[in-house]
Write a structure and sequence with these properties.
By secondary structure, this protein is mainly alpha-helical. The chain folds into two domains: about 1-90, Arc Repressor Mutant, subunit A (Orthogonal Bundle), CATH 1.10.10.10; about 105-175. It has five helices and four strands; from the N terminus they run βαααβββαα. The chain has a two-stranded parallel sheet. The radius of gyration is 30 Å and the shape is rod-shaped.
Length: about 180
Amino acid sequence: MTNIKMSVLLAEILKNKDFNKFTVMKLKDEYLNRSEKILCSSEARRYVYKHLIKLVKLGALTRIGVKSSHKMVYKKTASFNDVVFIPEQEEHKKDIAVFAEEKLKSSAIGKLEEALQKHKADMMTAIGESEEYIRLIGSVPEMGDSLTEKYYLARDKSAKLLGKIQAVETVIATYGEV
């Protein structure tokens, strides 16, 4: 008898009588479907593959097909039943879930930072517009009423953009801490 550390879920899937001829992708998909956590597909595939290689080395599984091919099929051998699966700490699941969460978080923060840069650029435009209206009011006093109204509109736009900038910065700061 040979011992191998493995997650309880992966061991359950492999022990299933109906789960005999399978590919890495089929096992990974089954693992992801039955997992209670949101897992990163590529990390789950690496985890599954690592354990398949161990089982092949132990002689519990054989490979059928071209080596290093996505169509490589794994089949249980007679010695598969001699393998004792020791429950592995669920840390790999945490790592995979954390990786997926960080990927999602970095994607969301990236979008927020793009929005922030756009708002800042718009803010600079609105400030420049306000400053120009003030300059024009001084240099073309006969258009003062019309330019003053436009100045107030540009100033209001700046205030709204400042609010948007502060909101996005708050979300980035809060989301970054979580």
